[in-house]
Specification:
Trna Endonuclease, Chain: A, domain 1, alpha+beta, two-stranded antiparallel ribbon, globular, single chain, disordered N terminus, 196 residues
């Protein structure tokens, strides 16, 4: 918001405060902004996958409805979605799920569905790079956990959650920056170099 005679200094400062307070609090938004940066700078092509829906009923615009928009009135999800994001980076297929948790002590496994786990297992089995990006909102920390470390945990533990300490031990913290907002490809690049 720029200063002009219609805006008081207090309004400007309040708008800046709202922006600053919300910055980085929405993981999906941060990833989308980062992915757009990667596309714009030709580093990678990674995007959010749309959820497949079956439309049953629509409402077409009438002369009274001046928006001119067709409104979906009834629809359902056709099939369970796999993971949130996929794409290519340096010739490698990348696939990952992104989740936020308000819990300070652990990440609940109920947030990751069985079909998503099976999907990530298939990605790894076929040579792709799979991982989770998990944000612990209370700590303002975001971690990348590679699928192999995720599978190692769920295959050898009966718990219904992954402790925060496991992310500190096995995960990679993604530092928030200006551009890209969440530079998770920095971690992927190091992983690829070590895996050669």
């Amino acid at each position: 918001m720029e200063y002009n005679k219609g805006n008081s200094l207090k309004e400007i400062l309040n708008k800046k405060q709202v922006f600053h307070n919300n910055r980085g609090m929405n993981l999906e938004n941060d990833i989308n902004i980062s992915n757009q940066y990667y596309i714009d700078t030709k580093q990678a092509f990674i995007y959010k996958k749309p959820t497949p829906i079956k439309i049953l009923k629509v409402d077409y615009p009438s002369k009274m409805n001046r928006t001119g928009r067709i409104t979906i009135k009834e629809a359902y999800f056709e099939s369970p979605s796999t993971t949130d994001y996929n794409g290519l980076y340096q010739g490698k297929y990348i696939d990952f799920e992104a989740k936020e948790t308000n819990n300070k002590s652990y990440f609940p496994l109920e947030n990751i569905h069985l079909h998503q786990i099976n999907h990530l297992r298939n990605i790894i089995e076929h040579g792709g790079i799979g991982f989770l990006i998990i944000r612990f909102v209370e700590y303002h920390k975001t971690f990348l956990l590679f699928a192999d470390d995720f599978f190692s945990y769920i295959d050898h533990n009966q718990r219904k959650s992954i402790p925060y300490e496991y992310f500190l031990e096995k995960g990679y913290e993604i530092k928030e920056k200006y551009a890209p907002r969440l530079d998770y490809l920095e971690i992927i690049k190091e992983y690829m170099e070590v895996s050669k």
